[in-house]
Q: What sequence folds into this?
């Protein structure tokens, strides 16, 4: 198999959920799955004095055993899936980014074994998003693949939205699942000025703006649907705070897809904006962040 899905695993409840999400993605993509466990090697207590190689072997073996347990858990549920285990020493995010350098998709839990009880999104997940070259799925929520519905957030003013829609349609075709494309615009900020500006002919009414956005969204969805005409899809324009609207939509979805601009200067990783950030902290289902630009 040429394509691979990589998932981080540390025996936490969040990573157990990530395993299942990653397995479903790998199975749908007809890809292999690599389960990766990262560990910190013991630092020498005295400068320039290093632990013996035998100790390194103990760490390596223990870490690989953890990854193998995760892999075995996936194999027990999906015996037809090509599952491999791997382990690496170093910061967890860096180990995962290295493992996923040529991967089609990277899946992480929303939080690991560290942190505190009220933590909504782990630092490893954020660092992975900050450095990944491929799309990243953060496995929020508890269930996986139960609703057959994908929601994709579309910013019609962003040229990169075509990549985001393409990812969402591809994923919907593989599952298969219904796809709902949503563009959210904030009409509240227009309310104070609108009456005078509309009267002066300097501004469209909210209804006119919404109609224009709906037409633009329909055109974008139509272009993306041409690749997957078999996918049942719909689209709508919603008014309000984008993060709030999409979090509410996530209660009825298996996956929410959102875009993020790639970093400048040829660097890997994406700059997570406020809408994606809200979803990553509060969504009720897994969130796929698709880098573009």
A:
């Amino acid at each position: 198999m040429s394509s691979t899905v990589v998932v981080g695993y540390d025996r936490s409840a969040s990573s157990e959920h990530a395993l299942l999400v990653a397995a479903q993605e790998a199975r749908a993509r007809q890809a292999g799955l690599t389960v990766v466990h990262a560990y910190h090697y013991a630092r020498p207590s005295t400068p320039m004095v290093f632990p013996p190689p035998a100790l390194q072997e103990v760490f390596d073996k223990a870490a690989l055993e953890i990854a193998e347990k995760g892999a075995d858990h996936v194999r027990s549920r999906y015996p037809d899936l090509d599952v491999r285990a791997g382990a690496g020493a170093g910061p967890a995010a860096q180990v995962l980014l290295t493992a996923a350098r040529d991967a089609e998709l990277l899946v992480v839990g929303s939080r690991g074994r560290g942190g505190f009880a009220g933590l909504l999104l782990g630092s490893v997940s954020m660092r992975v998003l900050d450095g990944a070259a491929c799309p990243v799925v953060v496995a929020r929520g508890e269930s996986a693949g139960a609703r057959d519905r994908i929601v994709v957030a579309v910013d019609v003013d962003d040229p990169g939205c075509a990549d985001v829609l393409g990812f969402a349609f591809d994923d919907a075709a593989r599952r298969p699942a219904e796809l709902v494309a949503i563009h959210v615009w904030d009409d509240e900020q227009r309310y104070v000025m609108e009456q005078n500006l509309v009267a002066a002919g300097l501004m469209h009414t909210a209804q006119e703006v919404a109609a224009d956005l709906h037409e633009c969204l329909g055109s974008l969805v139509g272009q993306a649907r041409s690749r997957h005409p078999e996918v049942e899809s719909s689209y709508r324009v919603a008014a309000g705070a984008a993060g709030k609207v999409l979090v509410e939509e996530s209660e009825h979805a298996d996956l929410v897809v959102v875009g993020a601009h790639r970093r400048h200067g040829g660097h890997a990783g994406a700059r997570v904006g406020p809408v994606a950030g809200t979803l990553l902290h509060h969504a009720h289902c897994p969130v796929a962040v698709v880098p573009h630009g």
Remarks:
- The longest strand covers residues 32-39.
- The two ends are 28 Å apart (CA to CA).
- The longest helix spans residues 53-77.
